[in-house]
Design brief:
Structural class: alpha+beta
Radius of gyration: 19 Å
Number of strands: 12
Helix content: 10-25%
Strand content: 35-45%
Strand order of the largest sheet: 1-2-4-5-6-3-9-12-11-10-8-7
Distance between the termini: 37 Å
Oligomer: single chain
Order of helices and strands: HEEHEEEEHHEEHHEEEE
Shape: globular
């Protein structure tokens, strides 16, 4: 398959090897670690496949315990914690080569009526059609797209467009607030299974969230002075959505201290409806020397990708 969206759906199509045990592929890529969003998305698929399918997931809480190895299958063991009258709870442990690398607890809720309120979006932003793709920003700045980034762009399952243009030089981040916003959508149709859309968005939620932590300290493009890894990840799903339609990912970092940075995200549809809330803490450790890592496609696409930190 050449379509990156089809490859993402295939990546989320786990093999069931026992009643509560599933196996997922881990593509062989030029990453030091498996991308954390991949593990979270696959774990959520495993949890969802052990439910009746009539209760959408409403929240997940996860910890990245060890970095996964690209190219090595990951086994997901599901514990059926509870099947209640309106809530279902599942716990998932991801194992690779005999070691636990990730665990997740997910809760599913039977939809029911209730009152509603929502804080408005923080600001009005341009429509995604008015913004350049990341590849176009790179071409504009460099006069072309390097071959490695051209290959990367062809594999990318999500179209990502930064609301605020990429900053390229250290002087451009002076006084910058720890905030970032991107429009995203899958680059092709993802089918009609709501669980796949939820898991695909879970995958995407890990791609750019720690950008908000980095913005005050270094440009998002160019030499990177910090190694970064996701430590934990939590999501709350408020409304139905499709991950192959445009959604706005509004991100901020309220604090970074002690080698860790906290990031929060709100995901909206084009009408301004809040779909998903996200919180993540990441580890940031200075490199002994700067790595020239050009990473315009989010944390999924470079050396030191997310998905567990070595203590």
């Amino acid at each position: 398959m050449t379509n990156p969206a089809e490859r993402l759906v295939d990546l989320l199509d786990l093999e069931q090897i026992e009643v509560n045990i599933f196996r997922g592929r881990s593509p062989q890529e030029s990453l030091q670690r498996v991308f954390g969003g991949q593990v979270a998305g696959q774990a959520l698929v495993a949890a969802g496949r052990t439910t009746e399918g009539d209760r959408p997931v409403h929240s997940l809480h996860a910890y990245f315990l060890r970095p996964g190895r690209p190219g090595v299958p990951i086994v997901y063991q599901v514990e059926r914690v509870r099947d209640g009258r309106s809530f279902t709870t599942r716990r998932v442990v991801a194992v690779q080569q005999g070691r636990t690398i990730f665990n997740l607890t997910a809760s599913f809720h039977q939809p029911e009526p209730g009152f509603e309120h929502q804080l408005p979006m923080r600001r009005v932003v341009p429509a995604p059609e008015e913004l350049p793709t990341v590849a176009d920003e790179v071409r504009e700045h460099l006069g072309g797209l390097p071959e490695a980034l051209e290959r990367m762009a062809r594999r990318q399952p999500f179209d990502i467009r930064y609301v605020d243009r990429l900053r390229w030089k250290p002087e451009e981040i002076e006084g910058a607030e720890p905030r970032s916003a991107v429009w995203m959508r899958a680059v092709g149709p993802l089918g009609e299974d709501p669980l796949i859309h939820t898991c695909a968005l879970t995958y995407a939620s890990d791609m750019t969230l720690l950008d908000a932590v980095r913005i005050p300290i270094e440009p998002l493009w160019g030499p990177r002075g910090f190694d970064m890894a996701s430590l934990d990840h939590a999501m709350w799903f408020h409304r139905p959505f499709r991950a192959d339609e445009w959604f706005l990912y509004d991100q901020e970092s309220p604090i970074a201290t002690g080698g860790r940075g906290l990031a929060r995200g709100r995901i909206y549809d084009r009408a301004g409806n809040l779909l998903v809330s996200v919180v993540q803490e990441g580890l940031l450790r200075p490199h002994t020397k700067s790595h020239s890592l050009e990473r315009p496609y989010g944390e999924a696409q470079g050396e030191g990708a997310q998905g567990g930190a070595e203590a």
